[in-house]
């Protein structure tokens, strides 16, 4: 009996030790994120104190009030309860609880083996199993993950249409680059915005929009920063060219990250490039709105992020007309662009909409006087959760727009910026465009040099599959190329870069090897069918047009969904068309035709047929079809593959284990539309009797592959 009790005691003690060691390991790792702002010694003391208090109190209560539990082993009960209390209080309990349980079992096995005698074969086997199990667990957590193969298609992984005849926009220009800082002048954490600041700015009171002057959490943040929402600073780091000017102004703003891991320096690569090419770029500091080890503001600060951007622009407007200021007569305030990353992406879209208001929409006693000439918006991996009014999203109007998003984004793991893209409209007489680039192996963080390959913090980061992600240098090369081309087209009216924004293949060797999908739309397009007018499948957008479908396995109109698990859509409807030659209901080739009525006014000014399409299957690597354009006197047939090859399904495995952490596991393929442009004037020259203005039918004939399904949207002429 004593022998059995001895085994049990050692097992209990081993389990207790395993639990405590697991808890200590987790606390030490999490403790690296705990920064009170007082001193590192206080941070460490806080963690040690927390451990001691929880174990001590739990042990005392167990011994004092639970005599039955005490018989099990008070040390084990104290360790078990305190470990799980700590796991519940700290972030990542989905991981910490099973991890503590695993180490508890390992500890019990080792304790039992020691009690039996470590030289016995059974004991050695137990200890070996524990060792192997821990090696596997720690290797699994520390490894990058695994590659997820995609059918190779050299048109995508090695773009061949290298016909960009203008200057490479990702190369440095001729201007000498300078750097300076503006800010409050009394920042307690960052000397560049404190004692070393170049231009002193006044703080602003954000409490009418975001009152963070009370509460324990906000009090701790004030200890760290030295200020709260009554006196938010206007801090920025600026890269600017040497020269007469005036130079277009670009603001870039980061998103949510650990607030003490400062994000604003992470766009230096863009600042230096753009300044050398004749822009002023200011990277805006909004780190004080970011989260920390306790929590974050959960996007309640979204409006304030945008409002602060406009308060920065107010300073630039003043500097440009102040003779004593370095930037006097150097800033082209008629040409402004905003770039935002992550929550900063939502902020720039909000700022563009807010810029046109003269009052705060939730309190009309708050007056605005912005009205800046914002010509372009760039969103990098944005979110789109903020709506100024309940469930009424922001709609961009009459501003050029660009979206960059990665397929291996493990933070915003669905291309939600497509909703902003679809909501952007052009209503005035000026030329506008919108464009997007989906980059298969890009992640969320590497657009900022301070964020890196891990898009989530510990313990989530231990479970991310980062192996397929491209290098940070490659990802930032793409950002440099596209953002620079967008700004040249938007702020300098260099329309020679528009072909690149329409078709990534124009960049050729300038793009790293990867799969890309691009969208494009401009204000010159006339839509025949954009599927937004109603839910009648037989009607089109243009007046007098009708639609007919024959032998289709699938024919439906609906919005294109995202791959997230919430069932949200991209907020743009299109048509789903599927076919299968072996289907018993088939009696001929599947065809989808838009008949253009006499009341639809076409003319010879149209040069191109345009539409957007994506492969809507998960397992069929290649789909192709024929496009037929008919007139009363002639018809022309062309294959989609003569112009573009749709990419295979771009599946992703964002995590090492879908059981422990689910990120889009049920929908591994994001449906992203590819822009197609077919030059009609070439067809007119090659086909006698075919006249563009006489087109009376556009047909999609599914005769190239035996089966498939596509989603088609935004069919038009430009």
Folded structure, characterized:
The protein is α+β, with helices and mostly antiparallel strands and 718 residues long. The protein has 3 domains: 2-142, no CATH class; 154-522, Alpha/Beta hydrolase fold, catalytic domain (Rossmann fold); 526-717, Sandwich (Jelly Rolls), CATH 2.60.120. The protein is built from 15 helices and 23 strands. A 10-stranded mixed β-sheet has the order 2-1-3-5-4-6-9-10-11-12, with helices on both faces. Strands 13, 15, 16, 18, 21 and 23 form a 6-stranded antiparallel β-sheet that branches. The protein is globular, with a radius of gyration of 30 Å. Residues 1-5 have low confidence and may be disordered.
Compact overview of the structure:
The protein is of the alpha+beta class.
Ranges where pLDDT stays below 50 over 5 or more residues in a row are 1-5
Average pLDDT reading: 87
User: What portion of residues belong to β-strands?
Assistant: 15-25%
Radius of gyration, CA atoms, in whole angstroms: 30 Å
The CATH homologous superfamily name of the largest domain equals: Alpha/Beta hydrolase fold, catalytic domain
Shape: globular
Instruction: List the quaternary state of the chains.
Output: single chain
Query: What is the fold-level CATH name, i.e. the topology of the largest domain?
Result: Rossmann fold
The level of helicity is: 25-40%
Structural class of the helix and strand makeup?
alpha+beta
Largest sheet: 10 strands, mixed
Distance between the termini: 91 Å
């Amino acid at each position: 009996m004593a022998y059995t009790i001895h085994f049990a005691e050692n097992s209990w003690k081993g389990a207790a030790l395993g639990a405590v060691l697991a808890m200590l390991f987790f606390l030490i790792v999490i403790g690296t994120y705990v920064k009170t702002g007082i001193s590192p010694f206080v941070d460490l003391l806080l963690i040690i104190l927390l451990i001691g208090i929880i174990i001590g109190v739990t042990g005392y209560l167990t011994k004092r009030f639970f005599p039955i539990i005490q018989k099990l082993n008070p040390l084990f009960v104290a360790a078990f309860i305190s470990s799980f209390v700590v796991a519940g209080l700290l972030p990542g309990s989905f991981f910490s609880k099973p991890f503590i349980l695993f180490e508890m079992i390992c500890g019990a096995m080792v304790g039992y083996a020691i009690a039996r005698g470590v030289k016995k074969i059974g004991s050695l086997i137990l200890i070996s199993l524990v060792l192997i199990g821990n090696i596997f667990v720690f290797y699994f957590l520390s490894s990058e993950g695994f590659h997820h193969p995609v059918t190779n298609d050299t048109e995508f992984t090695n773009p061949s249409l290298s016909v960009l005849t203008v200057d490479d926009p990702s190369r440095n220009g001729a201007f000498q680059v300078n750097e300076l800082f503006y800010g409050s002048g009394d920042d307690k954490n960052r000397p560049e915005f404190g004692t070393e600041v170049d231009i002193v700015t006044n703080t602003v009171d954000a409490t009418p929009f975001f009152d963070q002057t009370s509460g324990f959490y906000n009090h701790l943040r004030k200890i760290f920063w030295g200020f709260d929402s009554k006196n938010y600073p206007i801090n920025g780091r600026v890269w600017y060219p040497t020269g007469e000017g005036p130079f277009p102004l670009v603001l870039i703003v980061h998103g949510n990250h650990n607030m003490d891991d400062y994000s604003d320096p992470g766009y230096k690569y863009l600042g230096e490039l753009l300044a050398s090419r004749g822009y002023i770029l200011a990277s805006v500091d909004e780190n004080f709105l970011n989260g920390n080890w306790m929590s974050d503001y959960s996007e309640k600060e979204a409006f304030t992020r945008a409002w602060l951007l406009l308060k920065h622009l107010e300073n630039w407007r003043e500097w440009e007309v102040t003779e004593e200021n370095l930037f006097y007569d150097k800033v082209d305030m008629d040409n402004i662009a905003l770039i935002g990353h992550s929550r900063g992406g939502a902020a720039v879209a909000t700022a563009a909409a807010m810029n046109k208001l003269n009052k705060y929409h939730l309190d009309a006693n708050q007056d605005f006087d912005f009205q800046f000439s914002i010509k372009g918006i760039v969103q990098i991996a944005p979110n789109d959760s903020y709506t100024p009014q309940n469930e009424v999203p922001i709609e961009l109007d009459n501003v050029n727009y660009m979206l960059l998003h990665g397929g291996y984004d493990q933070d915003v793991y669905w291309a939600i910026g497509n909703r902003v893209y679809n909501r952007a409209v052009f209503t005035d007489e000026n030329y506008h465009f919108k464009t997007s680039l989906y980059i298969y192996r890009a992640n969320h963080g590497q657009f900022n040099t301070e964020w890196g390959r891990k898009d989530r913090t510990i313990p989530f980061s231990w479970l991310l599959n980062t192996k397929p992600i491209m290098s940070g240098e490659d990802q930032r090369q793409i950002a440099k190329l596209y953002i620079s081309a967008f700004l040249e087209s938007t702020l300098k009216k260099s329309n020679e870069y528009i072909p690149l924004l329409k078709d990534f293949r124009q960049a050729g060797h300038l793009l790293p090897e990867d799969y890309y999908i691009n969208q494009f739309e401009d204000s010159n397009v006339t839509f025949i069918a954009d599927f937004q007018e109603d839910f009648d499948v037989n009607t089109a957008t243009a007046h007098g047009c009708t639609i007919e479908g024959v032998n289709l396995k699938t024919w439906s109109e609906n919005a294109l969904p995202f791959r997230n698990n919430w069932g949200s859509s991209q907020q743009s409807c299109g048509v789903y068309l599927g076919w299968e030659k072996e289907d018993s209901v088939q009696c001929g080739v599947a065809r989808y035709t838009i008949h253009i009525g006499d009341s639809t006014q076409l003319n010879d000014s149209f040069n191109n047929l345009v539409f957007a399409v994506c492969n809507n299957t998960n397992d069929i690597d290649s789909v192709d079809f024929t496009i037929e354009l008919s007139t009363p006197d002639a018809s022309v047939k062309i294959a989609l593959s003569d112009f573009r090859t749709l990419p295979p399904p771009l599946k992703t495995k964002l995590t090492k284990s879908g059981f422990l952490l689910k990120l889009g596991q049920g929908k591994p393929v994001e449906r992203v539309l590819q822009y197609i442009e077919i030059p009609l004037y070439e067809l007119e020259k090659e086909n006698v009797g075919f006249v563009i203005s006489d087109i009376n039918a556009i047909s999609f004939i599914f005769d190239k592959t035996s089966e498939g399904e596509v989603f088609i949207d935004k069919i038009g002429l430009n």
